[in-house]
């Protein structure tokens, strides 16, 4: 296995579209790195530049100690698994798994041994003589994974490999991928738009937006300490609540509709911007009796979700303020149009510069 590094990598297409700007990403040997972001953020372009399918306009791509920026894909010792399974329909599973090794002139005995080992690891032993049309979606995806594994490459590249699976199968295959990484100790670069997938799979997560890197870090660090309003709103479900406001002369925070919260807003002094957006996750707010919290709100919609309630509210007893969402226990009584109190966990508040969107605390 090998490390991967993108150093100042940029990609500008002939029509002027900037797909990647100044990407500096270091992926350690054996690390599971997830690139996540909305459609068009540049994550797949970054993966394709690692694979050699796109040539950077500027910067360098390193695999191990080799500069592979201008190296053809077939000479990079990488294996890529795409969103589509890309299996040969006229070949059996065994033949699909063996195809890459056969094309490289490997000995038949070595091919047979490698194919059997990978099939056993992925639970495909019983379907080796079937063709792709006779397999379930999950089995086809495992064959696509196996075809990459038999080559024993330095780096595995995954481009949204689970997006064609149904919800139950995605969860099962996610667990298989995690076990596979633990067993192989492989270097994996994984692209997805699904933030839940990113948090559950990645050893570290790179959040991208508009061709730039917004934040890199362990999943829980990105979730608990998002570097910007964009990361805070993208990572986490339900999404974080944001309430715009400003710092008062006495240091308290004042929001819309006369909402005033006596919270400590970092940093102190001249470094603190006047316009500050408060962020709080729906799971970090308790619903209490009216007047018993930091602010009252009126219930608008209640969504039962089995293990919890997702409650939509408008701040203020009149229900005319900002809309916020709160996750409540399923047994908590909740009536539409009722006035309740909201008490956020003060240790888990997030403050952002309203002008730059960057985190303050």
Keywords:
31% strand; alpha+beta; 361 residues; five-stranded antiparallel beta sheet; 8 helices; six-stranded mixed beta sheet
Describe this structure in words.
The protein has helices at residues 43-51, 93-103, 108-121, 137-149, 167-184, 195-201, 219-224, 229-234; strands at 4-12, 18-27, 32-36, 58-63, 66-67, 78-81, 155-159, 187-192, 204-209, 212-217, 241-247, 253-254, 260-261, 275-280, 285-288, 295-304, 309-315, 323-328, 339-344, 350-353. Strands 6-7-8-3-9-10 form a six-stranded mixed sheet, with helices on both faces. The longest helix is centred in the middle third of the chain and has 18 residues, at 167-184. 23% of the residues lie in helices and 31% in strands.
What's the topology here?
Layout: E1 4-12, E2 18-27, E3 32-36, H1 43-51, E4 58-63, E5 66-67, E6 78-81, H2 93-103, H3 108-121, H4 137-149, E7 155-159, H5 167-184, E8 187-192, H6 195-201, E9 204-209, E10 212-217, H7 219-224, H8 229-234, E11 241-247, E12 253-254, E13 260-261, E14 275-280, E15 285-288, E16 295-304, E17 309-315, E18 323-328, E19 339-344, E20 350-353
Parallel strand pairs: 3-8, 3-9, 6-7, 7-8
Antiparallel strand pairs: 1-2, 1-4, 4-5, 9-10, 11-12, 11-14, 12-13, 14-20, 15-19, 16-17, 16-19, 17-18
Helix pairs in contact: 2-3, 2-4
């Amino acid at each position: 296995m090998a490390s991967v590094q993108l150093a100042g990598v940029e990609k500008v297409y002939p029509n002027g579209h900037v797909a990647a700007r100044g990407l500096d990403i270091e992926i350690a040997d054996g690390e599971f790195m997830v690139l996540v972001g909305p459609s068009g953020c540049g994550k797949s372009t970054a993966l394709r530049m690692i694979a050699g399918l796109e040539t950077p306009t500027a910067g360098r791509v390193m695999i191990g100690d080799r500069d592979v920026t201008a190296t053809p894909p077939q000479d990079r010792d990488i294996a890529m698994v795409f969103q589509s399974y890309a299996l040969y329909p006229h070949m059996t599973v065994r033949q699909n798994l063996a195809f890459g090794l056969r094309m490289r002139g490997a000995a038949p005995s070595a091919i047979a041994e490698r194919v059997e080992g990978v099939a056993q690891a992925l639970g495909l032993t019983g379907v080796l003589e079937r063709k792709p049309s006779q397999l379930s979606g999950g089995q086809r995806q495992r064959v696509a994974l196996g075809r990459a594994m038999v080559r024993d490459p330095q780096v595995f590249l995954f481009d949204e490999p689970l997006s064609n699976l149904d919800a139950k199968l995605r969860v099962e295959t996610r667990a298989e991928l995690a076990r596979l990484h633990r067993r192989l100790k492989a270097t994996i670069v994984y692209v997805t738009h699904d933030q839940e997938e990113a948090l559950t799979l990645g050893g570290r997560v790179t959040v991208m937006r508009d061709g730039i890197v917004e934040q890199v870090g362990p999943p829980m660090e990105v979730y608990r300490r998002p570097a910007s309003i964009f990361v805070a709103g993208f990572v986490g479900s339900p999404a974080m609540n944001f309430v715009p406001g400003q710092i008062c002369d006495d240091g308290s925070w004042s929001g819309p509709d006369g909402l005033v919260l006596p919270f400590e807003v970092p940093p102190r002094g001249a470094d603190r911007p006047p316009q500050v957006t408060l962020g709080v996750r729906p799971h970090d707010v308790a619903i209490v009796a009216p007047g018993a919290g930091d602010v009252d709100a009126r219930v608008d919609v209640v969504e039962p979700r089995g293990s919890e309630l997702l409650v939509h509210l408008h701040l203020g007893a009149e229900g005319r303020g900002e809309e916020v969402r709160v996750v409540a226990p399923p047994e908590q009584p909740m009536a539409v149009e009722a006035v309740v109190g909201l008490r956020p966990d003060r240790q888990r508040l997030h403050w952002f510069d309203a002008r730059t969107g960057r985190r303050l605390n």
